[in-house]
Design goal:
Helices cover 20% and strands 28% of the residues. The protein is α+β, with helices and mostly antiparallel strands. The protein has four domains: 143 residues, Molybdenum Cofactor Biosythetic Enzyme, Chain A (3-Layer(aba) Sandwich), CATH 3.40.980; 53 residues, Molybdopterin biosynthesis moea protein, domain 2; 71 residues, Molybdopterin biosynthesis moea protein, domain 3 (Molybdopterin biosynthesis moeA protein, domain 3); 65 residues, Beta-clip (Beta Barrel), CATH 2.40.340. The strands form seven sheets. Strands 1, 17, 20, 22, 23, 24 and 26 form a seven-stranded mixed beta sheet that branches.
Length: 375
């Protein structure tokens, strides 16, 4: 724990959230790409397009049946069979299509009896056939640079024969300054969300010296939890100002007003308040944005689904402060549960959160709002 400071840590001004986010976009640079095994790339953001070879090389059958030229079945039906001049070739799934054929008819669509061959229904060109390049086209990326890989993406790339991909994987150190239950809970939450969103999180033991962590070069992004206020033992922002370039102390948002951002060389340092609600709010609006910039992800904050619901009652907010509000779903409505300070019970009972922008006085009952999920 840091020794008490004789100087009270104060906030000179609250920087608008939009200005902080614009600064992040301008000053945070992507990390160096590296190539990893595909099996370790889930959730990571591609630095280079994931490309596969053309698959299949030739048209193949997608079902067992008769390989034929679809035009020979034109007009065929149950009561008006079309006479075929020769017996089609039987084919199985995965076999190349014979020359002169463009479709695979089901077995029961062709009747062979006493040397007479009839089509009992019209087959469309391409039916039952996977065209050359139908699975993978060498000209079309499986996934593009800047996009995260989902479990399905990984499976599809593996099936296409891709063994390694090039990604950006920001290394993030999470330092809880104090060993309180709330600070440790916030640290574990952030570390888990970092991993889920494509970073490599290292959760430090509580009480590790902040100056030593700032001087180390074992991370691309440092997150500190605690010590942002005006208490006798609060000096994390003072240390940040002494050891790095302090960019912001005080953000015009609630909860989370006392957060700070600095840069140790090119590495961003985000200092979060030692309250779960405040740490989470700043992480959602600023921390995730920093992580996305480091990974060169194309979309800021758009990885999670957003549901539009109607407010069940009015939300009043202070102009000039962006505000995080937890809401609980009630049918097709969103019920606000708390404001300013978000009790632990409200966080646990809520289904998501809404952001009231700084230029708004709030929302009236019945206003459609975008509800985002918690980590």
């Amino acid at each position: 724990m840091a020794a008490p400071s004789d100087t009270i840590q104060t906030i000179a001004r609250l920087t608008p959230l939009a200005d902080v986010q614009a600064m992040v976009d301008l000053d945070v640079k992507p990390v160096t790409p590296r190539t990893v095994e595909l099996s370790k790339a889930f959730g990571r953001t591609l630095a280079v397009d994931a490309m596969a070879r053309t698959r299949p090389n030739v048209a193949i059958a997608m079902r067992d049946g008769w390989a034929l030229d679809a035009d020979t079945t034109l007009g065929a039906g149950g009561y008006t069979p079309a006479l075929l001049l020769e017996t089609p070739q039987r084919i199985e799934v995965g076999q190349p299509m014979p020359p002169g054929t463009d479709s695979v008819a089901p077995f029961d669509a062709i009747k062979v009896s006493k040397g007479r061959v009839e089509a009992l229904l019209t087959i469309d060109p391409g039916d039952g056939v996977l065209a050359a390049g139908g699975d993978c086209d060498v000209a079309i990326p499986m996934r593009r640079a800047g996009e995260p890989l989902s479990l399905t993406d990984v499976a599809a790339c593996e099936a296409a024969g891709i063994a390694r991909v090039t990604v950006r994987e920001p290394r993030v150190r999470v330092l809880p300054l104090r060993g309180s239950g709330i600070v440790n809970a916030a640290a574990r939450l952030l570390a888990a969300d970092i991993e889920r969103r494509g970073g490599a999180a290292r959760l430090d033991d509580a009480g590790r010296d902040l100056g030593a962590v700032l001087a180390a070069e074992s991370a691309d992004f440092i997150i500190v939890i605690g010590g942002t206020g005006t208490g006798r033992n609060d000096n994390s922002v003072q240390v940040l100002a002494r050891e790095t370039r302090l960019a912001v102390h005080g953000v015009a948002m609630t909860p989370g007003e006392t957060a700070a951002i600095g840069f140790a060389g090119p590495r961003p340092v985000l200092v979060l308040p030692g309250r779960l609600d405040a740490a989470l709010s700043v992480w959602l609006t600023i921390g995730r944005r920093i992580l996305d910039r480091l990974a060169a992800a194309h979309r800021h904050g758009d990885r999670d689904p957003v549901e539009t619901l109607m407010l069940s009652r009015k939300v009043a907010s202070t102009v000039g402060l962006a505000e995080i509000v937890p809401v609980r779903r009630a049918g097709e409505q969103a019920e606000p549960l708390a404001m300013k300070y978000l009790p632990l019970s409200s966080l646990a009972r809520s289904d998501g959160w809404i952001l009231v922008p700084a230029d708004s006085e709030g929302y009236s009952e019945g206003t459609p709002v975008a509800v985002k999920p918690w980590p």
